Amino acid sequence: QEHYIGVGALPSKDVMAEITYQTRKRTGRGDIAFIGEKCDTNNRFEQMGFTAGTDYGDSGNKDGVKWESKQQAWNSHYATGPEVSNDNDCESYYDDKEQKMHARLNRMEGCLFGYENISDKLPTYMQMHDLFPLSPYTSTHDEMLHNRRKGNGKSDEHIYNVFDTSNAAKWYQHEVNQKFLNAIYI
Q1: HEC string of the chain?
Q2: Exposed (0-12), middle (13-18) or buried (19+): which is 35, by Cβ within 10 Å?
Q3: Angstrom distance (rounded) from CA 103 to CA 113
Q4: Of the candidates 75, 30, 29, which has an alpha carbon nearest to the alpha carbon of residue 56?
Q5: How far is the C-alpha of 53 from the C-alpha of 112, rounded, in Å?
Q6: Whole-number pLDDT of residue 57
Q7: I need a labelling partner for 166 at 20 to 30 A (CA). Which of 7, 23, 47, 146 fits?
Q8: What is the CA 83 to chain-centroid distance, rounded?
Q9: Burial, 78: exposed, middle or buried (Cβ in 10 Å; 0-12, 13-18, 19+)?
Q10: Contact at 8 Å (CB) between 84 and 35?
Q11: pLDDT at 1
């Protein structure tokens, strides 16, 4: 298929376990990660061969993320972590844009710093628009579904038609950069 379409029946637990097993076996790669969307700490997800799960806990509550980090510290094979957002977010980014930016930064703070021991840090999930705000005329989901160039077809035109270039977006990108710098150098 030409584009991501995001539809279809989900495989059963046994079929998914076989898919992950065969993929690792045929590639000879035991380090391939499989991430389950909307998967919690239920043991069945690890049994299916997943390495991690998404959307567990309230990423805006850093203390809650720390608590969950401690709860999952015993398992070095599977963990489920918080997300800043996902491609199905229906939140209108441009309604009360400044408040939404601050909320995303707060969730990012919980995701990046919600642990006491770095070895217990939970996996974190973010979308493109969490790092680089998109223009009000598109969304992560739209970009995945259509995967097409915007503007006159040149890559620089595409970039300027996909991403928000406002001063607020530049401020937001600076704040994101600072969070990542702090996460790297702590």
Answers
A1: CCCCCCCCCCCCHHHHHHHHHHHHHHHCCCCCCCEECCCCCCHHHHHCCCCEECCCCCCCCHHHHHHHHHHHCCCCCCEECCECCCCCCCCCCCCCHHHHHHHHHHHHHHHHHCCCCHHHCCCCECCHHHHCCECCCCCHHHHHHHCCCCCCCCHHHHHHHHECCCHHHHHHHHHHHHHHHHHHHC
A2: middle
A3: 15
A4: 75
A5: 16
A6: 78
A7: 146
A8: 5
A9: buried
A10: no
A11: 41
What is the CA angle 35-172-53, rounded to 5? 10
> What is the pTM (predicted TM-score) of this model?
0.79
